[in-house]
Fold this protein.
Amino acid sequence: MNYTLRKLTDPTPEELEEIRAIFDIAFASERAFQSVVGPEKFPQILPILNRAQLIAGSLGGEIIIAADAANSNKIIGAIIWFGPGREIYDSDEQRKRALGPLMEVFPPEAKQWYAEVTPKMEAFKKASFGDRARTEWYLQRVGVLPDWQGKGVGTALIEEGRKRVGKHGIALQAVEPKNVSYYEYLGFKNKGHIDVQALHGDFTVTSLFWEP
Ligand SMILES: CC(C)(COP(=O)(O)OP(=O)(O)OC[C@H]1O[C@@H](n2cnc3c(N)ncnc32)[C@H](O)[C@@H]1OP(=O)(O)O)[C@@H](O)C(=O)NCCC(=O)NCCS
């Protein structure tokens, strides 16, 4: 299968929406966010979460896409990175344009839950990575269309990032055991896990770090 990788510079809203639609499909069974907002609201809020992450990535991070060369360069997968010194929702512009619209549709009880759990999650991140989640690269989100999964696209998107990090490492957090073992298979080291009780279910977050 023939695909190309491309870093988006100043993506248009249409391009971001095209990737958002890919993420909506790729993350349709994501458990962590579903456990937070509940299975009923999840399908409606997932696109808004994906849009928020993509707008944040376009403002403070980097987005790399994989496109199907044989089908009018339709996007088949994408990855969002935040480089050293940056993280998601860390600027007023990101908070206003990315987080703001997400918060508008967030159920009040989920907002309350986030407010309570955020200090714990921050402490866990610090215990796993020290300051390196912020001072090195952070892999925020990677998703590939189901028909294209298992064909090397995800690995190519991660490798493309790895080529660019120089002397830096890469931090990420994953929930699905399959994804944890995938990242370990790619050379990321397991830096510990935390069990999280959300309003609509429990899940485990695992920290992973790749040293150059
Ligand atoms: C996770 C994801 C991005 C990986 O992308 P992908 O293009 O499917 O990945 P690749 O084809 O490059 O690599 C997967 C292959 O690596 C190999 N592999 C993965 N884990 C492995 C392991 N532990 N041991 C040996 N081989 C392994 C397998 O060959 C696997 O293919 P398979 O699933 O058909 O067996 C993609 O599956 C996806 O979009 N999932 C849904 C969204 C998601 O969960 N994103 C990650 C959030 S942290």
Notes: The radius of gyration is 16 Å. The longest strand covers residues 189-198.
